[in-house]
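Now for a concrete sample entry.
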Amino acid sequence: MKSKKFLMISLASASIGLVSCSDFLDEMPDSRTELTEDNAEYLLVAAYPETVPCEIYELYSDNSDAYPNRFASFNRLQDDLYKWEDTSQGEQDSPADLWESCYKSIASANQVLNVIAGLEDPSSMDAQKGEALVCRAYNHFLLATTFCMPYTSAASTELGIPYMKELETSVSPSYERGTLEETYKNIEKDLLEGIPLIDDSKYAVPKYRFTKNAAYAFAARFYLNYVQADLSNYDKVIEYATMALGTNPSSNLRDWEYLGTLSMNGEVQPNEYVNADNTANLLLISAKSYWGYTVSPYSTGERYSHGPVVSYETNRSTGPWGSYSANEDDNVYYTGIWSNSSALPTKVLSMKIWPYMQVIDAVAGTGYGYIVNAAFTMDDLLLNRAEAYIMKKDYVNALADLNYWQGAYTKAAAPLTETSVNDFYNALAYYTPTVPTVKKELHPDFAVEAGTQENLIHCVLQARRIMTLHEGLRWLDIKRFGITVYRRLMRDDGGIEVTDQMDASDPRRAVQIPSDVISAGMQPNPRNN
């Protein structure tokens, strides 16, 4: 599915472990053009990844279940990802593809930084430098959250990923992974240096670039996952989120009521969801991906998907805000769901991601699948801030943010209160794979007090899980809060068979680095025997 012509990449790609040809060592990142001050900004477009981890994260998470053998998987990659197996597949959406794409983008950012450093007046390109630094940080963040364990108090001994700050000039370089703590410190350094330099006025199409607000949203997500013993990271989440959200967050959130009025047929709702004119969208990434076929109304990929049982934890779930109903007038949510009509439905979808095709050869009928991913949004940023307030025990402000979310996403009239949230989650039993609920046991590396703090965390996790369904962000919550994930087979007789589970300490939470990178000598992620 993925064209192999991109596997041989130039000097500037610095894709770790991939062997370069000497013929390419003299070429620049665009294969021929010499980098100058005038065209450095053009190269910055290549500093954004062409691959997103949506499929990896969704299939690894509790948003997917297995169905009987009579349903087909989309490809071998889908099988491997759902089963948490170390995969050798290298096509679009694979861990190998994400690894290569991110390091190619990092190399482009480094090339721009190299050009700027050599200028007589580097300050003349401060805006480009800021964007390159934030892009470099973002690509490394994607790699770290995919191929490493979650950031905990053990980060100084956990494996990180190679942090590329320089252009590679040798044919077969060797790299050390370093520690996860070192990786996160480097990401933070790039972010703190890059954000003040960004200038929104430099962008013709700002929603596809790191504007100030998009960079603030990235910083908030980064610090949410960069948990410190003194909880100072949550202060940073609140600080950066507030700079983007402003004094009236409701004016910047997505108009879910309007979205719900649009047709659920075809790409109508998905096109509006990734509308570049929508103030809620902070960064859109056009990515080569076939994930859209699995989370759209097609029969592809039904073997492992988001189906009816798990939907009662997500887009058909009941929360302290009210209940889902198939009757539009009774549904607490503004948006409905799409479900296939087979005897055993396997897809219950929120219409957000659509499969597009980039035609390579119209005659041969070949091309790339791609999606547009809303990588950062005001709505998710709001819930990140709510989580930070909860962890700081500022429940008044946390509830204010949750009520902003509830007002935008639901039709609920009664505001969320400490009492209503406690009453709802206290009445629920903890989830088991055969008797599921929306309340799952939390096993984070940090303390979460029983009672109000835990219940508010359950509330924000449920809200984010519903709202970001199909986009992969649930996996970050699972890793951060140590939530156990089960593999479940949905049998034709209605029974649920548990086939595997992944606990908080399971080393498979760090996706295995690509096999060719391991073959080149890089230390692999550990696995239980």
